[in-house]
Specification:
Layout: E1 4-10, H1 14-27, E2 32-37, H2 44-51, E3 54-57, H3 65-75, E4 81-85, E5 89-91, H4 95-103, E6 109-116, H5 130-136, E7 145-148, E8 155-159, H6 160-166, H7 177-188, E9 192-203, H8 211-229, H9 240-246, H10 260-275
Parallel strand pairs: 1-2, 1-4, 2-3, 6-9
Antiparallel strand pairs: 4-8, 5-9, 6-8, 7-9
Helix pairs in contact: 7-8
Length: 279
């Protein structure tokens, strides 16, 4: 995929990274890939050397994901479209193409997310295998994108110009909540976050050995977000003022909503009705 740079960040996920890379190159042979080996001890850096790709290896140990991604953004030439991907995802054959298409919808598009089997809101798709993923891509879709306050998951796209407008990622946030933080920053700067509803991925096996490490990161990140954005600790829902700013064209009474997840689902339903011509 020309004019697109994809940054893949991993930690002790060598086998998943190999599968993810093979999958990407099969459908996007000319895509520019940048790898971040975030202090792995499973030989990932040796494999990256043999691959001959652009990569960073943090031999001093694991870095906060915000810091690691910023270093990649600052030290490699980048195309206009930037995608951040975690190797647990097996992307569909049209995933990158569909994501980039929505990313270039207009000059007000912020962060664009995709749909997968492990996200329990408007981005969820009912698949349980790679073969079902490819079958899903053959089915017609009624919408191409939806508005959302924030995407979840492990694949996010944004324009290089967005970094120039609102800056780099928060380096105090250690794990994937850096993307929630960034999407909230998009909202307060007048951008619209979207879901690419025809871009699909299937979750590959996740190593259980990472669970304690990731749990500690998530707890720390939620405390940061609670202080920074006045978010709910468990559901990460932003404060009412920010929610009202982020509603954009979608008219929604948020007074009775108790969680960010329920809000995202409501926006998904309303957007489907609007885009489908029902409202």
């Amino acid at each position: 995929m020309q004019n697109t740079s994809i940054i893949i960040i991993s930690w002790n996920e060598k086998e998943e990274l190999i599968q993810c890379t093979s999958n990407l190159l099969e459908y996007n042979p000319d895509i520019h890939m940048i790898f971040i080996d975030n202090g792995s001890t499973d030989g990932t850096n040796i494999w990256l050397q043999e691959l001959g790709a652009d990569y960073i290896y943090f031999d001093e140990g694991v870095q906060p994901f915000g810091k690691a991604i910023n270093i990649a953004l600052e030290n490699f030439p980048l195309n206009d479209n930037i995608i951040i991907l975690f190797p647990k995802y097996h992307l569909g054959s049209n995933c990158i193409k569909e994501l980039v298409k929505i990313l270039n919808t207009d000059n007000h598009t912020g962060v664009v997310g995709i749909c997968s089997d492990i996200i329990k809101n408007g981005q969820e798709v009912p698949i349980s295998s790679i073969s079902e993923l490819h079958y899903l891509e053959t089915l017609p879709t009624h919408t191409t994108s939806l508005y959302t306050l924030g995407n979840s998951g492990y694949c996010f796209g944004f324009k290089k110009s967005l970094i120039e407008k609102i800056g780099f990622f928060d380096e105090d946030i250690a794990y994937t909540d850096i993307f929630l933080d960034y999407q909230l920053r998009c909202i307060i700067n007048g951008y619209i976050n979207r879901i690419a509803t025809s871009a699909y991925a299937f979750n590959q096996n996740v190593k259980s050995s990472q669970a304690p490490y990731l749990t500690e990161l998530k707890i720390a990140d939620r405390n940061i977000l609670r202080k920074k954005w006045n978010t709910h600790y468990f559901f990460l829902g932003p404060n009412d003022e920010l929610i009202n700013k982020g509603k954009n064209e979608v008219k929604l009474d948020i007074s009775s909503l108790s969680s960010f997840k329920r809000l995202s689902k409501s926006i998904f339903i309303l957007s489907s009705m609007i885009n489908g011509g029902i409202l």
